[in-house]
Amino acid sequence: MAIDRLTEDGFLTTRLDEVINWARKNSLWPMPMGISCCAIEMMATASPRFDISRFGSEVMRFTPRQCDVMIVAGTVTYKMAKVVRKIYDQMPEPKWVISMGACASSGGMFRSYSVVQGIDQFMPVDVFVAGCPPRPENLLSGLMALQKKVEHDRTIGNFLHKSPLFIPDVPAPRSAGQVA
Amino acid sequence: MNDLIVQKLKTLPGAVEATQEFRGDLTVQVRREDIVKVCRFLKDDYDLSFDMVIDLLGVDMYRPEDRFEVVYVLYSLKNKKYLRLKVLVQEDNPVVETVGSVWSGAGWHEREVYDMFGIKFKGHPDLRRMYMPEEFEYFPLRKDFPTMGITDSIPLPRK
């Protein structure tokens, strides 16, 4: 966007897609689906030290009706899968899912009859975050990867042409060890 | 103390099948039909007063005779004394009488044993599954149940 024009002429021109995506990606309100130890790291991510509010995602809502992104943080058992799916279904569109940690992504160390071996078996997932549990930096990196994805969404295009979602190649997120 | 318990249990004829002592801990194998009688006696007896059921668990020994065991871990607050009771259960008729009438807290443990091993507790007021979904047909802690479960035995929500 040509911000410098704003000071001269008092207006700017841009694509509607970009404005909507810019607004969306900077206020992704999470649904904290904390079901085991990953939730502790998710809480730490919201703490002042890591400060998820730098990315506009500090508003953790405990009702799915007000959320954009579900952070599934923990071991999902078969019994819990129905609950997770129900809460996901209650979230308004557009919505995204971050699968946080080894358990949610692949069953993790629980290779057993009671644990779902990856939540992508019953719901769509946008970003997988590795780790057991992932450090807060890693979750933030996952959130930034999701922001990139939202940024390239064809919001108006999808609406007008009812085409399937355009999903661009997302650059690989920075690993947790790297510091900006 | 252990001698006293064994001696007192002799007043119930035929109830005790075997006793075993290991480093001061007493294990008593009780006849299946007499378990409620024995538990009631151990709780009500003034000198013993085993007033607390610490745990109640099932074991799958995976042998042709007496496949399952139900183990009762009791504690006497008065004597600071643990006692283990054991009952042998057959595979073709896995039924034990409930001790919920003696210690009402045992009902929860019995539900857990039923969920994991399929041992039924006769007279239990609410013998539902504890961890697994109600429509699940298997008993996961039996030795012949595969660790990864049985495919499609628990339905997942549709994607």
Protein described:
The complex is a heterodimer of chains A (180) and B (159). By secondary structure, chain A is of the alpha/beta class. Chain A has 7 helices and 4 strands. Chain A has one domain (3-161): 3-Layer(aba) Sandwich (Rossmann fold), CATH 3.40.50. Chain A is 38% helix and 10% strand. The longest helix of chain A has 16 residues, at 136-151. Chain B has a domain at 2-92: NADH:ubiquinone oxidoreductase Nqo5 subunit (Beta Polymerase, domain 2), CATH 3.30.460. Chain B starts with a helix and ends in a 37-residue tail after the last strand. The model of chain B has no long low-confidence stretch (mean pLDDT 92). The interface between A and B is medium-sized, with 15 and 15 residues.
Task: Describe the structure in brief.
Chain A has helices at 3-9, 16-25, 38-46, 78-90, 101-106, 136-151, 155-161; strands spanning 30-34, 69-73, 96-100, 127-129. By secondary structure, chain A is of the alpha/beta class.
Biggest interface: chains and residue counts?
A-B, 15 and 15 residues
Report the end-to-end length of chain A measured between terminal Cα atoms: 25 Å
Under CATH, the topology of chain A is which?
Answer: Rossmann fold
Topology-level CATH name of the domain at 2-92 in chain B: Beta Polymerase, domain 2
Number of strands of chain A: 4
CATH 2nd-level architecture of the domain at 2-92 in chain B: 2-Layer Sandwich
How are helices and strands ordered from N to C of chain A? HHEHEHEHEHH
What percent of the residues of chain B sit in helical stretches (DSSP H or I)? 10-25%
Could you spell the SSE succession of chain B in H and E letters? HEEHEEEEHE
Major beta-sheet overview of chain B = 5 strands, mixed
**Shape of chain B from CA axes?**
elongated
**Which sequence of strands runs across the widest sheet of chain A?**
1-2-3-4
What is the alpha-carbon Rg of chain A in Å?
A: 18 Å
Strand percentage of chain B, roughly?
Answer: 25-35%
Low-confidence stretches of chain B: none
> In angstroms, what separates the terminal alpha carbons of chain B?
61 Å
Identify the strand order in the major beta sheet of chain B.
1-2-5-4-3
